[in-house]
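ingest -> validate -> predict -> emit
validate: passed (alphabet ok, no gaps, 307 aa)
predict: started
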Amino acid sequence: MTTNIHQRFAQDQQKITSPLRSVDWLRQFETPLARSSISPAEWRALGEFLPELQTRYGDVVEDVILYGSAARGEERIESDVDLLLLLNRGLSQAEREMIYKLAWDAAGMHDCVLSPLFMSPDEQQWHRRGSSLWRNIQRDGIGLWKKASDVVQLDTNFEYRKSPASGDYVMTAAQYDEIRLYLENSAEDLAAADLLIRSGMERLAISHCYYAIFYAASALLLTKGMTRAKHSGVESALHQYFINTGILSDKLGEIYKNLHKERELTDYRASYIPTEGLPEQRLEQAQEFVEAVRNYLTQHGYLNEAQ
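emit:
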């Protein structure tokens, strides 16, 4: 049974040390927020952040939309509260830093994380062509700025094209562009890994090898209408839809699994040193993975559509 917002505050009221502005601010959004998975601490943080944001930047912010796992009502462990800020102009670096500080201060008081994402008018114009982010927000987003209904009203005038390899999914022109951008990122990371190996910085090269295949895998998932924010989610979906089905070989699945583990060692264990010859081997394997993905996308017309 869903607990409404007032019950959540009442159950946790003893822990509240800041003014209850959050109750007044969020009461108008009680119905749509009831389907979210925001915790009591996150409710309070939002109640601190949003009124302060309106006071300081109400003339710039057009809308604030909750999106991601919290908006979908999914169970969340160590997951941020994702907030899209639609703006009527671009922000200076100082303004961005101030809004980040407002979010950090509000979240810090309640031991959670608020993650604002800024979108200027020019950026909105691109995303309104039907980017994966925009489609996800259209489906799941909850408006927290205007007194509005459960459904966030966003532009849906997308240019749709049938996904060549997935007849049950229709893609937008922007998603074809995203596939191309993911592959460009893959190529950059492969080049960076090669340069780092040549420069003797082999530990860092491992991480770039991983991100090369991560972006390539993300491009593949887009062909089936999927995006995954977490690294584990990308790996799981890759195996479910491309390795286990035989579209990609088991060898490529092993390459992904090994590089994922080694990227974590590289990024989070200061004492990690790759064994001799491993970075060169991983670079060759990452190149093989990316090439296999590129061939699949080319054969099925995704890259032709993106050009």
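The longest helix spans residues 173-198.
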